[in-house]
Design brief:
By secondary structure, this protein is an alpha/beta fold. It is built from ten helices and seven strands. Helix 2 (about 110-120) runs parallel beside helix 8 and helix 3 packs across helix 4.
Length: about 250
């Protein structure tokens, strides 16, 4: 079990009154040249009504927020409902491995299986996120409960669609591991986990590279393009082009 220092668990800790798994997906290298633009796409864990304003973002809250949590994970309105455009695109309930995770088997192979289910049974919903992000006015934030699994898959596909290489996609995915200790402390502070309750297995708490590699393989063709998978799942080709123009800043050739 992961040991969380008392200083982190302090209920007065201001840091835990903000999302702790937040990052801007800007400044990532694109395979064909260029970088992704900052201030376009964010990822995070779930915000709550008692939170302080977000740090390190251009606009707080972002104009478009996509909540990937299942319906029965959420009680009441989203904290930013009526303030910004909140889109609810619920993905696999079983993927809620940290909050209200009743019935979730925490065996070693679970995340791999959960990721397989998301890219197969939830493919249309995941693909639809590209069109939302492509046509958002201002930054788009994607989140689930922890910002690790459902958010990780969704962000991976948006990055691949922009031309970010699989290696960089995996690096971003695994970066969440460094935030898990603070995330667990935050969930306990918010009453979303009972202090001292058994944690899921280390495998479920982790960011398994093999599971993300499987996702990338499942959604890309032999040329490494995610476009056919997106189109097959209902995304207009024009939206893919719009997303690239919106998110990728080409570096002029010298």
């Amino acid at each position: 079990m992961m040991d969380i220092p008392d200083t982190v668990l302090n209920a007065q800790n201001v840091e835990l009154r903000q999302v702790v798994n937040l990052r801007d997906l800007g400044n990532l290298p694109v395979g064909q040249g260029g970088i992704t633009r900052p201030g376009v796409l964010y990822r995070s864990d779930a915000p709550y009504p008692s939170d302080l304003p977000l740090n390190f973002v251009h606009v707080s809250p972002p104009p478009t927020v996509v909540d990937l949590r299942a319906v029965d994970e959420v009680s009441g309105d989203h904290p930013w409902e009526g303030v910004v455009d909140v889109r609810r695109v619920p993905l696999l309930r079983r993927a809620a491995v940290l909050t209200a995770a009743e019935g979730v088997n925490t065996g070693v192979g679970d995340l791999y299986e959960i990721y397989q289910l998301i890219v197969t049974t939830e493919s249309v919903r995941v693909a639809s996120l590209l069109s939302i992000a492509a046509h958002s006015i201002g930054p788009t934030l994607l989140h689930c409960a922890a910002g690790k699994d459902r958010t990780g898959i969704a962000i991976a596909i948006l990055l691949l669609a922009a031309g970010v290489t699989p290696e960089v996609v995996i690096d971003d995915f695994t970066a969440t591991a460094a935030n898990m200790e603070r995330l667990l402390a935050r969930l306990e502070q918010l009453g979303r986990r009972i202090p001292g309750s058994p944690l899921p297995s280390p495998e479920v708490l982790g960011t398994p590279v093999n599971a993300m590699e499987m996702v990338i393989e499942a959604v890309t063709d032999t040329s490494g393009s995610v476009d056919p998978w997106l189109v097959e799942n209902g995304v207009p080709e024009a939206d893919i082009d719009t997303w690239r123009r919106r998110f990728v800043n080409q570096v002029p050739s010298v």
